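Support reply, case 0932

Customer input (verbatim):
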Amino acid sequence: MKILWRVIALSLLMTAASFAQDNNNLTTVYLHPISLYVTSASDSIPTMVYVTVERPLEMNSSLILVPSVWYGDFKSTDTLSSGIIKHSDLQFNRYGLEAGYRYYPNGLRKGLYLQGTGSAYYCDLRNNFTSQTGSAYWFDALGYLGYVARLGNFSFATDFGLGWMVMAGSSEGNSTTMTKPGRWFNVDLALGWSF
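Our regenerated output:
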């Protein structure tokens, strides 16, 4: 009986060791601490919270899902050229999801990667001083070039994305308007854990 327990214990240890060494088949969840720190420290841009989930499809590719929330309260007092003082007390929120496909040319789910994504977001804006509100839908499509370094279950990722975005929205009492498509870029630095 002792031999059976030793065999089972050895098998469990070997399985745990193989998972610790080979994280290529594990889902990785990334947090974006630099963007969170920089945006939460600023009063002029919204706080940006991102979580990236990388789910392997094959050894050279992954499904990418990035839920995100932007939020912020901005207060300002501006003196217009006419001498009128304009007060603003704005609340801004953006909620949405980016989804895409990540391809690793070396086939190892680490190193250089290419990624294509599409995103859809809902935005709302409220001026608490004038009680005006507005909302919009934001859509974008980006292509990324990036790099992932993995050490056991820990991952470090950085990338640069470039693409196009468009918004459609309305404000209180106005009809829906659409912006012209414009260039959009994104720079990421993320820390992840595979499990």
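We compared this against your earlier run and they match. Two observations from our side: The chain has a mean pLDDT of 83. The two ends are 33 Å apart (CA to CA). Please reopen the case if you see a mismatch on your end.
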